[in-house]
Design a protein that fits this description.
It is a single chain. By secondary structure, the protein is an alpha+beta fold. The chain has nine helices and seven strands. Strands 1, 2, 3, 4, 5, 6 and 7 form a seven-stranded antiparallel beta sheet that branches. α3 packs across α8 and α5 runs antiparallel to α6. It is globular and about 40 Å long. The termini are far apart.
């Protein structure tokens, strides 16, 4: 038996690169401090995201939170389409055909949800968190809406600056840094509110 180290399987290397934290990266939102009522802060954020091509989520998340007696209010928008393994297989089979090219163009933007959630703080201030969440399966696909997300957050910051309501714009924040389990932007709470599975995809289509 040779004492030389075995070369890792090429497919294993490919999978390791695909599913590495570096490959996936983390989409980032913002945690802001404002002088504005929480409801108005959420409305401003949602309007800014809608202006960048997001569409409203059909369920009233604020009503769910109110029924729970939560200190938070929130609303959700989304963009893009989910990409499952069946879709990927068909796309690969038809890759060099007109249908395959059309499928590739239509699936460029992965399904992304963005939640805008806010609560009152002491001293008449408001905490606002704008946070993206996506499904898994293809890191490039899931990050396809990054330009719209960045433009939406920039629009939110611009409007808050111009109104004089912004106290602290904070730094870009990944969802892993939201650790308050009662916060709707916390991954577990977010999935509970939207009835999402462990992959971050709807258990039932809305």
């Amino acid at each position: 038996m040779s004492d030389l180290p075995r070369e890792p399987d090429a497919r294993y290397n490919e999978l390791k690169q695909t599913f590495s934290p570096k490959a996936w990266g983390l989409l980032k939102g913002r945690q802001l401090t404002l002088k504005m009522h929480p409801t108005d802060a959420v409305r401003l954020s949602i309007d800014a995201l809608l202006a960048e091509g997001f569409r409203p989520y059909p369920e009233d998340i604020a009503a769910k939170l109110a029924l729970e007696g939560s200190a938070w209010t929130a609303a959700v928008v989304r963009i893009g389409t989910s990409k499952n393994w069946g879709h990927s297989f068909v796309s690969d089979v038809l890759a060099d055909t007109p249908i395959g090219l059309l499928m590739k163009l239509r699936s460029k933007v992965g399904e992304m949800f963005v939640i805008a959630t806010a609560r009152e703080l002491p001293g008449g201030l408001t905490e606002l968190i704008v946070m993206p969440h996506t499904g898994g399966g293809d890191p490039d696909h899931d990050r396809g809406a990054q330009p719209q997300l960045d433009a939406g957050i920039a629009r939110i910051l611009e409007q808050l600056h111009s109104s004089g309501a912004l106290v602290d714009e904070g730094d870009p924040l990944p969802f892993t840094k939201v650790r308050d389990t009662s916060c709707p932007a916390f991954i577990g709470k977010f999935r509970e509110l939207l009835d999402l599975n462990w992959m971050g995809r709807p258990k039932r289509r809305k």
